[in-house]
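Take a protein:
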Amino acid sequence: MSIGDKPSVWKYLALSEEELEQTDLVAINLVVAVGIPRLRDLDIKRYCGVVDEWTARFAGELSHMEHAFRRTPDRWKGDLRFFRVGMLAGFLGQVIGARYNEAQKHAESVRYTDPSDLFLNGVIDTKQGTCGNMAALHVAMCRRMGWPVSLASVKGHFISRFDDGEVIHNIEMSSVRQGTFASDPDAFYIEKFDLPARAIECGSDLRALTAREMIGIFVALRARHFWDIGDFDSAEADYCLARALFPRHRRTYIAASVAIHNRGQHLFDSGEVGYQHLCFAHFGPPQATPEFSPAHGFKANLSGIFLGPGSSADQPNLNTNNSVANLGIGILAHANELGCANR
């Protein structure tokens, strides 16, 4: 599909699964975004070009970065695949300057009245984002590199997930800061988010999503914006579409149920079957997940890998955090090497 065509999510949904997997995730994300009135004039082609440029810049530096892996593979789990997806996260933080949205960093809940907080145009324009658009940016760039990376859901939180059928690496984009990247095992997320086994077994959480399911997530994010600005009709329609695209997603199920029952109070009298039941009164759309710093898994300091302000030429030092053995091996790696010019 040509980006120059009139944006329509339905054109993408008409594609086969194979065609959809080959489609640019930036374009898909922003085609959903332009369904929001205040974002209707987004220049999707320009944003795709920006991400193309960032990816080309990263690709041009990658072979040089990989010298560090070959010198000290044990510091990167002995897995070049892990090194690469981690370096891309580090590149976004160190070179591009991407950060978690400062205004939302410590908030217990957030009302997404600004849709740019949820979609790729926001993080591209401001270099500040949320788990939704920062993880989507990492996934979009990984896919440009030809790597098998998708979004994965953890309740209302989103991570970038490498899964080639042999190994899985989670990249926590909400913890990207200058000179670092973080990766945690599934066990960490299960513990932190109190994720029940059923959430994984049913295919909702901690699974690499298909392109169609990722569209469902983007539509659900749009619905969340509509709900937060009080456009309940649009929110209901989008939550229902999101449910159709990703029917196993538990958080969208809850949000869609709330939206549908909200409409029920306008269609039925109190006491009638169909009226909003009191048992739903305490539910609401998924709450925001504030930025958090993973305490477990792999945390890399990349201050010297991407040369530029604040870089160091110190030799790497490896420490193991044995206090988190119940959640998996904890590794804190200081990798002050390499040389990706921060120009």
Observations:
- Residues 9-209+290-334 form one domain.
